[in-house]
Design goal:
The chain is 64% helix and 1% strand. The chain has a two-stranded antiparallel sheet.
Length: 485
């Protein structure tokens, strides 16, 4: 058994990830080279620096044969999601955008966690390399999140995630035999959906470059756009419709796509988590459509178009916008705040509390009510037709408590920095739920996070990280007992 303080296998993996990141940096370098933009030198320098350090880490630790233990997996997951944005931020710092390192780290963390909050304005005139790098970060972060959620978090039993262990004793439940094969198959599905989305956007009227960038950030439910006005720039019902469909597809469990490919699409519709997700999305859209229609928008079709796109975008944590929903009145903002917390399904690219946890919380409350009515009754909570292990509801309630506590503390810290109530509350909610835009005039859909003080950007970067890694993964490292062998 390896000691939790044996960092060699951890640094080996981080070295490999840095080499991968350096290779990814060559893509925007080529794009800037083709566009004759001098930023290609920035990307090349950042790529060589990342390659050098990644290569050193890999070579120094390559003799490490230690199998990574569960506790080392906690350290690896957290360290990799802190270190990779530090290097991914380098092109932002050294480009002509005039960003501080706090700005650049915030942008990189927002990209890799597929949050979609930004500090960059004037996107319409930004260099192509920077726009492509933002999209690439979200796309790479999206596949990283899916693999983490399927291969690592269930083993760590974080917040009830043990429900999704693929090493089920029932062989028929195994989608693919090994985690590496599973990750490879999921990557192919992820890549395939991105390509289909690209062709759909291109056919609907986006340019080739816009289609590439938006297809990557849609399927990753990230929401970085190449335009300040986001999807609203196109004013196209077709593009909004395509975007809505692919935001939903990015929010469903990717393991189910593999089952659907093998055994038909009934696997998707049979899953109770998928049905709950679609049900919540339908109810939110219906409520918002009714509100917009009743409050001045006489065209029901237009109300439905606005409501469906923006509600799905916020609920899935994508964060695209087609209108300034700050102006939609008293009912819309609380609704958006609530659905921000929902997120999507487990094993997808979305953030938030996750639908399966909402199901477990509902089931726990329902069982408590039934026990009040029938004190001697025997009740079993089920998920997808199978009994939920006893430890799962406790883990989910622990996660929910930490999620709300984290949201509250981040809100208080932001308010101590002089931010107004709406900015503090929505900034904390959008960061910990990995949504993107907040509410209000500063960080709303027509603003960005640039005016915030650097200290607030560091706090929000940390909030994005803990939200993305399901809180327990990071907070367990702060317990002194964790580091004892």
């Amino acid at each position: 058994m390896g000691s939790v303080r044996d960092f060699r296998p951890i640094f080996l993996v981080i070295g490999i990830l840095l080499i991968t990141l350096s290779l990814a940096m060559m893509i925007p370098a080529i794009a800037d080279g083709i566009a004759s933009n001098p930023d290609w030198q920035v990307f090349l320098a950042a790529a060589l620096f990342s390659l050098f350090l990644g290569g050193c880490l890999t070579l120094v630790n390559r003799s490490s044969k230690t199998v990574i233990t569960v506790r080392q997996a906690f350290v690896l997951t957290t360290f990799s999601w802190i270190i990779i944005p530090a290097f991914a931020a380098l092109p932002f710092v050294f480009s002509d955008l005039g960003l501080s390192y706090a700005d650049a780290y915030f942008e990189a963390m927002s990209g890799l966690t597929t949050t979609g909050s930004t500090v960059i304005s004037g996107l319409d005139n930004a260099p192509p390399g920077i726009l492509l790098w933002r999209a690439l970060l979200q796309w790479l972060g999206g596949i990283g999140i899916i693999v983490t959620a399927i291969a690592i978090l269930p083993l760590l039993q974080v917040g009830g995630m043990q429900l999704f262990r693929t090493e089920s004793s029932d062989q028929s439940e195994k989608v693919l035999p090994r985690a590496a094969e599973l990750a490879g198959a999921i990557f192919l599905v992820y890549f395939g959906l991105t390509v289909i989305n690209f062709f759909a956007y291109w056919a609907a009227g986006m340019t080739l470059f816009q289609s590439v960038c938006h297809s990557m950030t849609t399927i990753a439910t990230g929401g970085f756009s190449t335009l300040d006005a986001s999807i609203g720039h196109f004013n196209s019902p077709t593009i909004e419709g395509i975007s809505t469909v692919f935001m939903i597809l990015g929010s469903l469990p990717f393991v189910l796509y593999l089952q659907a490919v093998r055994g038909g699409f009934k696997a998707l519709l049979k899953d109770t988590q998928v049905r709950w997700f679609l049900g919540i999305a339908f109810c939110a859209t219906l409520a918002l459509t009714g509100w917009l229609w009743a409050n001045g928008d006489g065209n029901l079709g237009h109300s439905l178009r606005l409501a469906s796109f923006n509600a799905i975008s916020v609920m899935t944590g994508t964060g695209y916008s087609s209108a300034d929903f700050n102006l939609w009145g008293a009912f819309a903002l609380p609704l958006f705040t609530l659905i921000m917390f929902v997120g999507g399904c487990t094993g997808a690219t979305t953030g938030g509390i996750k639908v399966f946890r909402i199901q477990v919380l509902y089931g726990t409350a329902r069982m408590q009510l039934l026990k009040l009515i029938q004190p001697h009754g025997m009740f079993t909570m089920k998920f997808n037709g199978r009994p939920v292990p006893e430890e799962v509801p406790a883990a989910v309630m622990g996660f929910f408590f930490l999620f709300i506590l984290g949201f509250g503390l981040v809100s208080l810290v932001l308010s101590l920095m002089g931010l107004d109530y709406v900015t503090s509350i929505s900034g904390a909610a959008t960061a910990i739920s990995n949504v993107g835009p907040g509410l209000g005039d500063i960080i709303g859909p027509h603003g960005n996070f640039q005016p915030l003080p650097d200290a607030a950007k560091w706090v929000l970067s940390f909030a994005m990280l803990i939200g993305r890694l399901e809180l327990f993964t990071i907070l367990v490292l702060l317990v002194p007992h964790f580091w004892r062998d």
